[in-house]
């Protein structure tokens, strides 16, 4: 704490009330969304400008104080968790949309802008920003975890949608990466090195991201199936045939039960796809035909999708609330959302294997996810004191990861490594590749001050 | 040379005739495509296996011998040029397609596979690999320069199409990056760090790349315009309206003249777009209507595009041969192809500015390019001994880069930095960002043995 106190003194003039050291204030920044034990930050700094961040970083660097960047703390693997003796940097106040350039299909934002605020701001332009994690996360957090969401199957993830960044390095230096052009071959791709680095390399203070035209026609709806495997096979063949679905989400019967209860839906408790199609009126009609034909082969009911915006909104609001909905299934429960991604042809094996493992362990855990990407989540619903349940969930989680790795998949499609998947990272990439990542980390952050203990276990 | 001789002795048993030290042999590996003075490699090694590469790299590392990875040497900024005292590593013999996985829309290749060989291999699958630089380049070279081509406007560049790599690091260690899943948030994005690193960080020995379904319907043709600006405005509005064109290439009247003469086309010498549309029969019809309507506003002639595969092939063969076609305009000429990319809304200014600068300098230089990406090329056609011409071309090149940077663009959309744009790299990203790139380089290649002098000027 003494280094922190010294830092506070140094920055007092600049930060004033935006340097939060009292407990009631700090308690609001515990980043407690995930299932990991949330720590209380020792101190929280709230920069408002790039210069604030530069000064903070330079001072922390000089004082040897670790820095934990924080968006709105909705990440699920302890990615933004407080670290003892560190300053947590709350970026949610740097939340201006600096520029919207419809003519170049891009905008420039401060890191604390949330996806909902951004889309609100874009309303009049006919454009939208497609990446939509269930939470109303910040763009800085989303870039830092390579987040995605329901639209990624068509529009890509944060990786494909970030064009350039401004980043404050651990010593306070400000750099610019990328450009406003759609492509570039100019030097190392720093933009994509920072994207997904979970605050361990520097602090993103500005981002240019791609925008997309709001489609002329949108059809969406839910689609019930006789069997889980039938729903999944429909997804696989849809992707393999290149139907450009905009959203293709799976909810298993347990997830449907949770959403019915929580969000007032009245869907049959069966394996269900939530589907959305974007295009011209003729284009979406054509996509609908192709989808119907594929689903009919696999026990799909009638594909009743509609253009009614209110119904669509209700559907996606329910989908986005699936995690709290799962939590609400059991009084005083915690959810542990694990996130797996496999090559599309392996999705059926992955999901039937997950269901079998969950059932064999006797756990309550809906399965759902952005299946068009081969990405699914399991929400383990557990009471904190259910030690046996947690042990079983840990074992099932490892089993899901092992399966994914055995078929060429990844231990996380979008949530990142945080503290929860540090071991899996080594299993996935091998010790030599992770050693290389550590060398890059050491080159950029030699003192190891940026978000220590995340991605890599401390040595 | 003495370190090289020692290295040769060390590797003699393994490489035998694939260690080429005699002049006639080495002369075939001069990577002389660009306008930069081509050097003769002192020695060329031809690995056939990953183990060959590992042994070579470990031995070079031990002996302190620099290594220059080489695909087929078609890069245009001296990226693969020989370095005195170095071993040039010819990867064109590692050219097997290791696996085609249509069910996951991907394939796994050795680095020396060329784009044409790959598509030949994919013929029976209904899938294709879209990235098509004009030359029949290798996948390893294309990944290393973040290459693109005519299809990138729809299918993305190498950046978007590479899923994972196997890389031999400078000390001979073999690592794996990425996965076969469509997305991943697992650790630093090493795949995209190596992509575009121009052989300065390691040697790519295997790559997994995305494949795409061959579209049901393809329409293509050339489209003449009254004015250069009209053609460019048509491109801008097409992209802004989100018409998913598959190819949209500009050829100015000088380029058309060159292609008519070289490739036997009979097009009117006017600003021309080569366009291709992919989709369902109804989808391409719809795209054609939208395009026509946009072009009609800007002095476009009739949009006569057809489904005739032979005509389409003739058109694209002519487009791909535009560089030799330009060279053939003047006896004993050399072409200098520069490569600029700007945000789409700035394309009109960029191209009219380029034409004005070329004309003011009195140079012969067709303008053409992948304009759907905001990417264009100027082919300066020069005799080697025309010192004044070269000086003027240098000045115009700097002017084009300055304009691009002033509007948020990049000094290279797809050719990379090589030796030709090292100064521009610093202007584009700033000294601090380039210093960070150098720190990453030093972390991965501490002895500075990988392709020295490329991307960064030697210190
Ligand atoms: C109900 C619910 C649903 C979710 N659904 C999805 C989903 O569909 N897809 C998905 O991808 N995720 C999902 N998530 C997870 C979460 O929303 C994402 O991880 C999101 O990207 C986190 O954003 P945040 O602003 O909350 O960042 P935080 O949690 O505050 O931080 C995330 C990471 O980024 C770092 N960071 C934050 N800001 C910066 C910055 N400016 N510079 C450098 N580093 C920074 C932090 O240090 C941390 O490592 C969900 C979460 C919840 C609670
Ligand atoms: C007529 C013509 C048209 C062209 N059109 C285009 C175009 O439309 N778009 C475009 O992007 N480019 C174009 N180019 C440029 C060129 O084709 C590309 O730069 C291509 O990517 C080079 O591939 P290559 O196999 O020839 O690689 P090389 O030129 O041999 O090498 C390129 C770079 O990659 C490195 N490298 C090669 N293999 C490896 C490996 N396995 N591991 C690590 N590093 C490696 C080299 O060291 C070098 O830095 C064109 C060139 C010509 C001659």
Automatic annotation (TrEMBL), chains A, B:
Q: Per its UniProt entry, which superkingdom is the organism in?
A: Bacteria
Keywords attached to this Swiss-Prot or TrEMBL record, sorted alphabetically, are: FAD, Flavoprotein, Oxidoreductase, Transit peptide
- Tell me the cofactors it needs: FAD
Which family is annotated?
Belongs to the FAD-binding oxidoreductase/transferase type 4 family.
Q: Does the keyword Transferase apply?
A: no
Any idea of its EC number?
Answer: 1.1.2.4
Q: What is this protein called?
A: D-lactate dehydrogenase (cytochrome)
Q: Which GO terms describe its molecular function?
A: D-lactate dehydrogenase (cytochrome) activity; D-lactate dehydrogenase (NAD+) activity; FAD binding
Which InterPro entries does this entry report, sorted A to Z? FAD-bd_oxidored_4_C, FAD-bd_PCMH, FAD-bd_PCMH-like_sf, FAD-bd_PCMH_sub2, FAD-linked_Oxase-like_C, Oxid_FAD_bind_N, Vanillyl_alc_oxidase_C-sub2
According to the record, the signal peptide region is none
């Amino acid at each position: 704490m003494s280094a922190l106190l010294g830092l506070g003194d140094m920055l007092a003039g600049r930060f004033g009330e935006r340097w939060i050291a009292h407990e009631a204030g700090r308690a609001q920044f515990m980043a407690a969304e995930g299932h990991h034990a949330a720590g209380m930050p020792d101190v929280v700094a709230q920069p408002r400008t790039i210069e604030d961040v530069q000064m903070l970083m330079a001072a922390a660097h000089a004082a040897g104080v670790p820095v934990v960047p924080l968006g709105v703390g909705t990440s699920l693997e302890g990615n933004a968790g407080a670290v003892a003796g560190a300053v947590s940097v709350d970026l949610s106040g740097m939340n201006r949309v600096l520029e919207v350039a419809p003519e170049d299909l891009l905008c420039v934002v401060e890191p604390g802008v949330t996806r909902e605020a951004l889309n609100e701001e874009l309303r009049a332009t006919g454009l939208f920003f497609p990446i939509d994690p269930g939470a109303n996360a910040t763009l800085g957090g989303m870039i830092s975890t390579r987040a995605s969401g329901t639209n990624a199957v068509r529009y890509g993830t944060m990786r494909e949608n970030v064009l350039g960044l401004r980043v404050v390095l651990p010593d306070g230096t400000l750099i610019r990466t990328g450009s406003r052009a759609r492509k570039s071959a100019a030097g190392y791709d720093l933009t994509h090195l920072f994207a997904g680095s979970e605050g361990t390399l520097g602090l993103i203070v500005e981002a240019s991201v791609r925008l997309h035209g709001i489609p002329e026609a949108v059809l969406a709806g839910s689609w019930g199936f006789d069997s889980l495997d039938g729903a999944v096979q429909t997804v696989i063949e849809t992707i393999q045939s290149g139907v450009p679905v905009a959203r293709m989400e799976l909810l298993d019967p347990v997830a449907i039960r949770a959403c019915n209860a929580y969000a007032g839906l009245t869907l049959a408790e069966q394996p269900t796809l939530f589907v959305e199609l974007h295009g011209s009126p003729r284009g979406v009609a054509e996509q609908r035909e192709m989808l119907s034909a594929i689903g009919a082969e696999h026990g799909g009911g009638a594909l009743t999708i509609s253009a009614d915006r209110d119904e669509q909104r209700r559907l996606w609001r329910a989908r986005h609330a699936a995690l709290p909905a799962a939590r609400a299934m059991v009084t005083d429960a915690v959810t542990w959302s694990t996130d797996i991604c496999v090559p599309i042809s392996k999705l059926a094996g992955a999901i039937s294997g997950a269901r079998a493992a969950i059932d064999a362990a006797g756990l309550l855990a809906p399965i759902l996810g952005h299946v068009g990407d081969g990405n699914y989540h399991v929400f383990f619903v557990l009471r904190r004191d259910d030690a046996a349940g947690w042990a079983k969930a840990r074992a099932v989680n490892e089993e899901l990861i092992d399966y994914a790795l055995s078929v060429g998949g990844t231990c996380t499609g979008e949530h990142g490594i945080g503290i929860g998947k540090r071991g899996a990272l080594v299993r996935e990439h091998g010790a030599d590749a992770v050693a290389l990542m550590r060398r890059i980390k050491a080159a950029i952050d030699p003192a190891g001050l940026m978000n220590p203990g995340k991605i890599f276990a401390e040595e």
